[in-house]
Specification:
Strand content: 25-35%
Distance between the termini: 40 Å
Number of strands: 5
Shape: globular
Strand order of the largest sheet: 1-2-3
Order of helices and strands: EEEHEEH
């Protein structure tokens, strides 16, 4: 698996785009991962973990939680907000 990480510093910390085997994650144009962690290295590791999950076809929520599918995410989301 060929992984490349692009970092973008800004006022709120560091954001990441991860390329796995030539495919950029997150896939949406102009979107960056902004994981929450203590250090930039931990944030980078979380961004790579999130990209690997998306690469495997899993669903990653805005908060960085990984679900098997979007339906599973919506089921949990609907239950919490109902």
């Amino acid at each position: 698996m060929n992984i490349k990480v692009r970092e973008q510093g800004h006022w709120a910390g560091v954001a990441f785009q991860v390329t796995i085997n030539g495919t950029k994650f997150p896939k949406e144009r102009g979107v960056w991962y902004q994981p929450v962690a203590e250090t930039d290295e931990e944030k980078k590791a979380k961004a790579i973990q999130m990209a690997k999950a998306e690469y495997q076809g899993k669903y990653v929520s805005r908060t960085g939680l990984i679900y098997e599918s979007e339906e599973e995410y919506l089921k949990v989301y609907d239950k919490e907000w109902a």
